Amino acid sequence: MTDIPRGARPTAAGWSNTDDAAERVRRRHAADRRLRRLGAGAIAVAIGLLVILLSSIVISSWTAWTTTQIRLDVTIDPGRIDADDPFRGRYQDLVREAVYGLFPEVESAADQRPLRDLISNGAQFEVRERVVENPGLVGKTVSIWVPASDSIDQLRKGVIDRELPPGRRRVSDRQIAYYDALVEQGRVRSVPNTTLFTAADSRFPELAGLEGALKGSFYLLLITALLSVPMGVAAAVYLEEFAPKNRWTDLIEVNINNLAAVPSIVFGLLGLAVFLGFFGLPRSAPLVGGMVLSLMTLPTIIIATRSALKAVPPSIREAALGVGASHLQMVGHHVLPLAMPGILTGAIIGMAQALGETAPLLLIGMNAFITAAPEGVTSPSTALPTQIFIWFDSPERGFVARTSAAIVVLLGFLILMNALAVFLRRRFERKW
Amino acid sequence: MTIAVVFFVILILSLAGYWMGRNRAVALEQEAAAGRLHSLPRYYGYFVALWCGLPALVLLLVWLLLEPVVVDRLLLAGLPDRMTASATPSELDLLLQTIKNAAAGFVFGTPKPEITTAAAYYQTLRFAARAALVVCVVSLAIAGLVLARRQVAPAFRARNRVERIIGVLLVLCSIVAILTTLGIVVSLLIESVRFFERVPPHEFLFGLNWEPQIPIRADQVAGLGAFGAVPVFWGTIMVTVVAMAVALPIGLFAAIYMSEYADSRTRTVVKPLLEILAGIPTIVYGFFAVLVVSPLLRGLGAAVGIDVSPTAAIVPGAVMGIMLIPFISSFSDDALTAVPRALRDGSAALGATQAETIRLVLLPAALPGIMGGVLLAVSRAIGETMIVVMAAGLTATLSLNPLDGVTTTTVQIVTLLIGDSEFDSPKTLAAFGLGFVLFLSTLALNVAALQTVKRYREKYD
């Protein structure tokens, strides 16, 4: 109809390919690219922060994986140690004499003090252990590697800077001289820090370990799993397979969703007021901690189980009912086994959450200073995260690296659990 | 120890019950006159086992929970009047503790003779209680076994009975969730009421001075500090605002990129990586805040001549923001992906660029879902404990500056309660008052968030 010749310039009313329009389009596309870059930048920032977070902790844990030992020649004086009862003896004196013996030229008591501070307070127990194992040593001189004190350990690792003026570091010039002399004699060595896993807590960083915390966390998770998994699965089965749709079940549903978002510290308050205050259960016990944590993980497990049950197609249920199974048989024999991988995955993720949870445990006293590993679910104990908190709160220099090391151990367990969950999901996932 | 043995005995009795019930059913069926069994033989076994084990286990549990209370009462009743007549509850607690310590062998010096007698009495009471426990629980288990076994008959509808019992158990398990909420509300309420008996609610909610440790007025509650919680709430708000200022832009832009721009390969790599941030325990974030973020920000501040407090709101806030990124991003991602294809196509057909589609069509459509995620993140930030316990301070000040030191509700709860088992001082009760406010505010946020998300879902389903 209209007869505009090809290639004719549009009139003033046209707007699509003037320079103005081209400029507008260019700007609109630039805005598009900008948003795209912002998004990519945001993701890069988030992942960068994750990398910084993890690497800073791993780096800071670095010095905690080894520990310094000093070789002493200890004379087991029969006058002090009774070969028939080697357990009670004045081992501290033996160790001190051995240290003084390294530098016979030092005689005044005031000069001997910095000397004996080279050695950890735990050295005497090391010697005692040796003698109790082999009472025949009494009367002989044994060469034995004992832990160095924390300041010497930190000096060897370079955490304490020997270039600083003497007033500003924890090791005196004289101690540095002693230390250098010992190094020259080949009496100092660095070994992997096994104490970190075999000892319980201690006020002295070089003697402190995670044994109590690991056992405590194990008992905690045991109680949590025993309580929350069966209860959570049962509740989910009821809500998903049996419950009529009415106000009562709606209430339960809303409740569960809300509980999932209640701050964990509130569960701690509940545990403190009800389990400790009302029922008088023991303080600091993994039993109570496990009860609190299981209430906390219950919603997670219920929600995960329900979605696993939902994923099982209705045809399975109809087929089971069709061949004469009762409702419960249908669920127990067919639906639950098919949903099991999903349920297990949810349970493991819930347990991983419980393992890292700290705040409720603080309120029920699981941050107490306890120097022995727990013997059962009712003996006082710490847990991995609360042990991290205790060490974080300790002023000694050596605890900084040990706190990081404990965090690395905690993260290691979490990675294992999550990897297991991912593996289960990949291995057994079914697409219907 | 005894408990473990009793538990084991119950277990064995139940197994025996299963076996007896099953065998009896089979035997009855073989007597030709009795007729066919109603259910499979194993259901008769289950029935007997359940009746043997369940009541005994319930009794064991109830007994264990009530035993300490009852024993304490009996012990106090058995003490001579002059020891208990004029004692306050906390003195009674102390007395009980002394007696128990004496009974356990922790004695310092020579105890008074009446303490020694009481300790001996306590030992007998405990022994009697344990003995009675074993007798009662085991006989209940045996009684259940015998009674249930007697019911076994071919016409007995064992499967239906067993399924009824299991059904009841399932319902009970799902009620635990309600009981937990109820427990939280009731325990917080009771302790808060006791707190408000000592400190008037208006002073707590509107007072501007929070010094729970130091007595400032002689006429105040037992001479103990001031309980105006406004500075504490203000600190919580400050930290939350900083956290959202970090998490919201990063999370939202990351979600936009992932749902609209990224290809599926990038998504499968990036999404789990971001989720890791949500899986790291908060105590690790707290340590990170103190180890890295705080020195960094203070160094930056010193470089430009600004004084940053070691407990500045910005430190725990920023770290909490990192923790909340995956929260915001996954909620926003879900909300954006849920917007129907037709809206996207319509916008593209009108000539809009992708950015314009996102800004003018997708974000408004997804807003309720995103808001739900933001509300949940805020509730998470308010209730977050370890990061602030480690990186924030203890002194409550009213300040608008995020570089000043802050304290938060959760920090105060933890500091007031750590290592304190006494329930009567206003100090510990104040923690429950704070806890109650915390619970109510997060509850309100959660309900609002869930409602928003739900309504939004209905709109497009």
Summarize the structure.
The complex is a heterodimer of chains A (432) and B (461). Chain A has 432 residues and is mostly helical. Chain A has 16 helices and three strands.
Protein described:
- The complex is a heterodimer of chains A (432) and B (461).
- By secondary structure, chain A is mainly alpha-helical.
- In chain A, 62% of the residues lie in helices and 5% in strands.
- Chain A has helices at 19-61, 91-102, 109-116, 123-133, 150-156, 173-184, 195-198, 211-242, 247-261, 264-278, 286-311, 314-322, 327-356, 359-363, 384-393, 398-428, and strands at residues 66-75, 141-147, 188-192.
- In chain A, helix 2 crosses helix 4 and helix 15 packs antiparallel against helix 16.
- Chain B has 461 residues and is mostly helical.
- Chain B has 16 helices and 2 strands.
- Chain B has helices spanning 2-30, 41-78, 81-84, 89-104, 113-151, 158-198, 201-206, 230-261, 264-279, 282-304, 314-337, 341-349, 354-383, 386-391, 409-417, 426-460; strands at 210-211, 226-227.
- A two-stranded antiparallel sheet of chain B has the order 1-2.
- In chain B, helix 6 (158-198) packs across helix 16 and helix 12 runs antiparallel to helix 13.
- The longest helix of chain B is centred in the middle third of the chain and has 41 residues, at 158-198.
- Classes of the chains: A mainly alpha (432), B mainly alpha (461).
- Chains A and B meet through helix 1, helix 8, helix 9, helix 10 and helix 11 of A and helix 2, helix 6, helix 8, helix 9 and helix 10 of B.
